[in-house]
């Protein structure tokens, strides 16, 4: 069952599949329109997020909302702004096996693989190093026996 605030704003879906928790595009647009009066009345600047040690931190402006509906509207506004921008092509999913975080690849070469190099990237490199070490030890053990 969707939360009461989603039922109240008419954004709860009636289906029961894996997408039953996802708001519809129309719902996102309604939430974005509801969020317009919260800010300055005009388009907001994009919220910049910096990931430090796997934790997202605001690297620019932040917006506070008075209640869950207003907070949801702000998130929806950012989502719609992203979907309508050219940066949609830079959206990526973290390459770590245990995470499915999304991030915007703003690297100069557009080849970022992890949400955080200091967390997910480091773990992936350690696993790769350990696998190589095990492979190189296997022939040595076979030679000594």
TrEMBL record:
Any Pfam family hit: zf-CGNR
Region feature Disordered, mapped onto this chain: 1-22
Composition bias, Basic and acidic residues: 1-12
Residue ranges annotated for the Zinc finger CGNR domain, each copy included: 90-132
Identification of the protein by name: Zinc finger CGNR domain-containing protein
């Amino acid at each position: 069952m969707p939360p009461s605030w989603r039922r109240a704003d008419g954004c709860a879906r009636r289906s029961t599949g894996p997408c039953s928790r996802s708001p519809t595009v129309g719902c996102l647009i309604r939430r974005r329109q509801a969020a317009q009066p919260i800010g300055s009345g005009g388009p907001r600047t994009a919220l910049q997020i910096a990931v430090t040690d796997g934790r997202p931190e605001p690297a620019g402006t932040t917006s506070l909302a008075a209640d869950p509906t207003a907070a949801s509207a702000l998130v929806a506004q950012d989502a719609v702004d992203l979907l309508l921008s050219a940066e949609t092509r830079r959206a990526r999913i973290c390459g770590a096996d245990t995470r499915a975080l999304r991030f915007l690849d703003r690297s100069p070469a557009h080849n970022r693989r992890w949400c955080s190099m200091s967390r997910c990237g480091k773990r992936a490199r350690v696993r790769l190093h350990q696998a190589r070490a095990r492979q190189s030890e296997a022939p040595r053990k076979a030679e000594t026996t």
